Protein: Fe-S cluster assembly ATPase SufC
Amino acid sequence: MIEITNLHAEIDGKKILNGLNLRVDAGQVHAIMGPNGAGKSTLAYVLGGRPGYEITAGSVVFDGQDLLALDPHERAAAGLFLGFQYPVEIPGVSNVQFLREALNSQRKARGEDPLSGGDFLKLAREKAGLLRLDMDMLKRPVNVGFSGGEKKRAEMVQMGILDPKFAILDETDSGLDIDALRIVGEGINAIMRRPDKGVLLITHYQRLLDYVRPDVVHVLAAGRIVKSGGAELALELERDGYEAVVA
Structure:
């Protein structure tokens, strides 16, 4: 699905990733945990193609393609989805308009026919139902006036509509209360827990992993993975802290 080899990256001359190696196979959920400044969000941005990050060494192969050679929109059309820690607001553009344009743009890039308005609304209702998001919310401007939990649920609806092969979710649990955390976790499972899909969950805390159980947990420190293990590793981190485990 995705294989990262000896990845080095920096921004403004500051090294962030230092020889990171990671492989996620189809059908797997991997969680990345680590202290602040370890490079977790940088990894997400580099994979998504955010400008400003310089790749100084290494490679990333996604579904048989050189991911780093693709522009961000090409990565999205190839089946990569990036969920942001802080979803942006887009005043003046409704969620329905935004999502339909995004989906049909990707379908066009893959040589597929666009969805009609009726077919799209049927799909949007189905995915909004998974996240218990009222369709009236999707008629509002993207994330404008949304609470933190509503933004994250709307983003998971977007993931469901785009139906990616691989999702990178950067601190999706940030700002969620107990109920929203459960709903988002169940939504991730319903959309992405399939044999032909993969997920990379980036999180500080173990709580999301109660709902989206990872196959592998990695500890990221100083720009590289320093320890990997099963779901029990997240409990160890929660109990002992990052410093003890990294040491």
